[in-house]
Specification:
This protein is an alpha+beta fold and 661 residues long. Helices cover 17% and strands 35% of the residues. The longest helix is centred in the middle third of the chain and has 16 residues, at 425-440.
């Protein structure tokens, strides 16, 4: 994480295929020296040249994260002015921050070094050379490094040299980089280089980005199984069944006799009683704490949760395996095994053929959270390590059904109610609304939702079980009442539904743009159904209804239809995704986007009428009105987030890339 060549970070992409004036130039040259005892010394030289005023701030100050098992030395830091003059950075300006903390993380054994440069203007270059040495690896006796060059508005030049003993077995693979090697005495010198032009890419929800851009992986591990085995050799020592663990397991399962009942009871106890915090103490980042420490703290990271869960299961004679996976949107493993492929640990129960994630507060024993599903993993136990995949969800696993009913009185008052039943990923999003109502207050949370839905006046209410209830379908009811709007009203706007989620393909395929997609997208299967019932005032005549809509692709279906019986209007919207994989090709997403855009303005939730006279045709509106899904309310590329620990607004579950090691 400390090395500058780990360029992937939070991928924020800009623009499309069109040319863009570059904002900055970056030259990055790294020399890695790997000794026979696997001591690693990285000498990194970086030059940043801002070409526009808005890029000066980024170039003039840089930060480096240093792990607790590394030493850090600044060799030179200066500004090279456009006229050739140099201005040295003053060490008195440098700042070192010990650790990084947050609501769900506590990185005790890292340091963040901040280096500001003096007198940087457009056309100047901030030059930095530093050296990082690592003698003791978190997983002993092996070394690995992954390099990914993400696209963006910076022109990048990358040069990496690895010097290692010829007798040392070093594996590597690269893409879109030039590679050559030579022998110098007892060393093999491996060299990679390449350039990345500024690219405008306005795409979200990207899957497997590391396999679509210039990248490099280096490793002394023979395979991914060896990484898991090295982790488990130290982790299993912490999962011993102590008298304390045995007593607790017996107490949790005292009324349970079947394996499934006991396993579920133990899992639910851990998720309810051990608070998730990414806690990294000392140099044991890949080693969990022992069960006594975990139970005394009542908090821990994923390794701790998995260790405690496996120990409690073992106390009841239930075998389990720890599972290494990555929570980033990457759905395949590279040719070369690197530790950075994994940042999370969960548990597999062979007797039930079930993967469970004990880090999710009040999680569901019957399914994994979205960030864990369909992922390549390594399962490891005393019986060895094996590559596998977590199960991907099906169309019937992610379902949300909404029933909205609105009554409009003759004087214009409206009363509306939406009943929501959600399963899978959608249940997590609905729980997030209830958690927000608990944390912020129901009135504030519902007013914010009403603004998203265009309901700008009225009173609101919510009936829901606790957001910590894991049972599914998870059911809630929202209510909205708008007072009399005025006697002259002759139009009724049918509300889109008072719900945090409404039917839209964005929840299955991510943002749908008019431009041709460049990268694969994260996708998911599922079904969304919304039925709207509207009771019109008793003096409304016949209404001309919008025509039915049906659009489809091989893995996508959208249906929308209006009907009327007397003063009752009924609208049913259904969106279905039948994808079987978590990754959709650009062509698949483009096909869905084209189908949705072709709907145009053919439907409207606005009903116009004349009191006691013939009705007028419904007014056309934008496609967003069809779905009731404002652009600002669309989910991010990580999909629906689950509240964790204390009630809070929905948030991504993934902390920085070192999470859970």
């Amino acid at each position: 994480m400390a090395a500058a060549i780990a360029l992937l970070g939070a991928v924020s992409l800009f623009g499309g295929e069109q040319a863009r004036a570059e904002s900055m130039r970056q030259v990055l040259k790294t020399e890695i020296r790997l000794s026979s005892d696997l001591t690693v010394t990285e000498t990194i030289h970086q030059e940043m040249t801002p070409l526009v005023e808005s890029a000066v701030r980024s170039a003039a100050q840089t930060s480096w994260t240093v792990n607790g098992n590394q030493t850090f030395e600044i060799i030179e830091a200066f500004t090279r002015k456009a006229d050739g003059r140099t201005i040295a950075a003053d060490p008195k300006d440098f700042a070192m921050q010990a650790g990084a903390v947050g609501a769900a993380m506590s990185y005790i054994d890292i340091k963040v070094q901040q280096i500001p440069f003096r007198d940087v203007s457009v056309g100047d270059t901030a030059v930095l050379t530093l050296r990082i040495t690592e003698k003791e690896h978190y997983i002993p006796s092996n070394y690995s490094r992954a390099v990914v060059i993400a696209p963006g508005p910076v022109r990048k030049s990358v040069d990496v040299t690895l010097r290692a003993p010829a007798a040392l077995d070093v594996r590597h693979d690269e893409q879109s980089l030039t590679y050559d090697e030579s022998r110098q005495g007892d060393e093999i010198v491996r060299h990679w280089s390449g350039n990345s032009a500024p690219a405008e890419v306005d795409e979200k929800n990207i899957a497997d980005l590391a396999f679509s851009v210039p990248a490099l992986r280096i490793s002394t591990f023979p395979d991914f199984e060896s990484i898991a085995t090295a982790y488990y050799e130290r982790a299993r020592q912490k999962a011993i069944v102590t008298p304390e663990v045995q007593s607790l397991a017996d107490d949790i399962t005292k009324d349970k006799h079947e394996v499934r009942e006991q396993a579920q009871a133990i899992y639910e106890w851990v998720t309810r009683n051990i608070r998730y915090v990414a806690v990294y103490f000392g140099s044991g980042r890949f080693v969990p704490n022992d069960t006594a420490t975990i139970l005394s703290r009542r908090f821990g990271d994923c390794k701790d949760d998995a260790t405690l869960l496996t120990a409690l299961l073992a106390a009841k004679g239930i075998a389990s395996e720890q599972v290494l996976l990555g929570t980033l949107p990457v759905y395949r493993l590279a040719k070369t095994p690197t530790v950075s492929a994994f940042n999370h640990v969960i548990v597999y129960i062979p007797a039930l053929d079930r993967y469970v994630d004990p880090t999710v507060a009040f999680g569901n024993f019957n399914r994994l959270p979205s960030s864990d599903s369909g992922k390549p993993v390594v399962r490891v136990s005393s019986n060895g390590a094996v590559l596998a995949h977590t199960p991907a969800s099906s169309t019937d696993d992610n379902v949300i059904e909404l029933d909205s009913r609105m009554t409009t009185a003759r004087d214009g008052q409206r009363v509306s109610q939406t009943t929501i039943a959600a399963r899978g990923d959608f249940a997590d999003s609905v729980r997030a609304l209830v958690a927000q109502a608990e944390a912020r207050g129901k009135d504030i949370a519902l007013q914010a939702l009403a603004q998203q839905r265009g309901m700008l006046a009225g009173t609101y209410d919510l009936d829901a079980p606790p957001w910590t209830d894991p049972r599914e379908p998870y059911r809630i009811t929202t209510k909205w009442h708008m007072p009399k709007p005025g006697a002259s009203e002759s139009r009724v706007r049918v509300p889109p539904g008072f719900s945090p989620i409404l039917p839209h393909p964005v929840f299955f395929f991510g943002a749908l743009n008019a431009t041709k997609r460049l990268y694969p997208a994260v996708c998911r299967p599922g079904r969304m159904v919304h039925t709207v019932h509207v009771t019109l005032p008793d003096d409304v005549a016949a209404v001309k209804l919008p025509p039915p809509i049906r659009k489809s692709t091989p893995h996508f279906l959208l249906r929308d239809e209006w009907t009327r019986e007397g003063q009752q209007l009924r609208r049913r919207t259904e969106v279905i995704s039948t994808v079987s994989e978590r990754v959709c090709s650009p062509a698949e997403v483009d096909a869905v986007s084209a189908a949705v855009r072709s709907i145009g303005t053919t439907a409207s939730p606005v009903v116009s009428f004349n009191r006691g006279g013939p009705a007028t045709a419904t007014s056309p509106s934008l496609m967003q009105q069809l779905f009731g899904q404002p652009a600002a309310d669309r989910p991010n590329e990580n999909g629906v987030a689950r509240p964790r620990g204390a009630p809070a607004p929905a948030a991504t579950r993934s902390p920085p890339p070192q999470r859970d090691r």
